[in-house]
Fold:
Amino acid sequence: MFKHILLPVDGSDVSRRAVSSAIEFARISGARLTPYTCVHDQWIPTDNELWPEYASHAQDEARAEHAKIEEAAAQNGVHCVGATSVASSPYLGIIAKAMELECDVIFMASHGRNRVSSLLLGSETQKVLSHSAIPVLVFR
Structure:
């Protein structure tokens, strides 16, 4: 079965709803869980003077979200430690982090925070499904 699950989270409602199912899936599988948030530099380039403040704020928000997930996971006997990284696109960050951590499955919501962008550019979930060599389980 699975040993290490990457759970991309972006603070959206559907992402939050996926958390309890991911924790249960990890518990049943005997897997550890890594909630992951990608801080992407699409809106503010890393050479912009606002970048450090934006990145710091985004990482603080991610850590707060991860802490809630870590607590819920611990209550269910699941080992859980959050992770963040910076990437030019969330799907690239998700795949890279899953590979870096040697995750054997990515458990992610069917869509995320920005449905308008998804209509124009394609959803991050669809991009992960299309490009990941690691199995992807999609929560609806």
About this structure: The helical segments are 13-29, 51-75, 90-100, 115-121, 124-131. The longest helix spans residues 51-75. Residues 116-121 have pLDDT under 50 and may be disordered.
